Amino acid sequence: MNQTESSSQLSHQHIQSAEVVLPCSELNETLAFYTETLGLVVEFIFPADNPKVAVLCGHGIRVRLEISAEASNSVIRLLIEDATVTETDLIAPNGTRFILTAALPPVALPAEQQSLVISQLNEKSKWVIGRAGMEYRDLIPNRQGGRFIASHIRINEGGPVPDYVHFHRVRFQLIFCIKGWVKLLYEDQGEAFVLKAGDCVLQPPEIRHRVLESSVGLEVVEIGCPAIHETYADRNMLLPTETINPDHDFSGQRFVRHIADNAQWQPWRLSGFECRDSGIGTATKGLAGVNVVRPQSTIASQTIIHQEEFLFFFIMNGHLILMIDGKECRLQVSDSIVIPHKMPHSIMETSEDLEFLEVRLSDQFKQTEH
Questions:
Q1: How many Å apart are CA 100 and CA 113, to the nearest integer?
Q2: Which residue from 18, 24, 136, 238 lies 20 to 30 Å from 347 (Cα-Cα)?
Q3: What superfamily in CATH does domain 262-369 come from?
Q4: CB of 172 within 8 A of CB of 225?
Q5: Cis (ω within 30 of 0) for the bond into 106?
């Protein structure tokens, strides 16, 4: 970068804000010190399931905590309003490093890297403390190349949740309640409501929301795309909002609250099964489909080869036996599977009480049966 370009990009008219980058070896303890001892407030944090970066504000400063094995020279990030700006480094005479970057760059979507992922809940399952003290179990450790994340989330003790009004920069995000209940607030959606077991919400991109409280033993499944996405605090918006607008368009999507008790069952895409459609397909203009599926009658084995970008099952009740890639796979309660496209699979056996969550992303569902 030449001096003219540097001066142009550093003009105060283009800089939205600045933040001091401070490395730390452990985020949770450091975050607690800055918030509880120093009184700073979290502006955003990511990734939600196992945070490694947190930005805090207060007392006239903005601090970015990043997990790092080694300390380094001072770093100051200059956030530019232009979303298309290319990230650039500048070094001051005293060694301070300035990083010029877009304040809100476009959501980056990694290339598809589909693979078979089976996650089974057992005594070896690892739970980690994530955002707002919630426990996360990673259902897709390889993240499908960074494109998707699925988390089994629980709150054991229940009661008020130490959350704040926030939003996520995502392409797709689903919250499905598996056990218990959780009280939520959403931008332009009216008063707080209770999401119960079997219910779900579509959180369209950047909708402001807040978790208020939960039952003892709450469990939800959260699915997001891309896998790594920022969570931003919004300290200016108060929820509930004065306006109610259920048709609010958030980057081409509408908010959906699917209530299991009000849903109608209909034939699923495979004979012998029925499903209740969440309505998320319509709200996302065909990007995603979310169903709860259960057996309706005797099933006949059907080999399926799908062309989806993402196909995910989570067992909520009973058990399911699949034949996949020539091998038998038994899935029980709280187990999940991601089935890559072009991999033959068939449903061989189900329990009478089977219910599973199906989540798929694509423009249109395609399959071949044999």
A1: 31
A2: 136
A3: Jelly Rolls (2.60.120.10)
A4: yes
A5: no
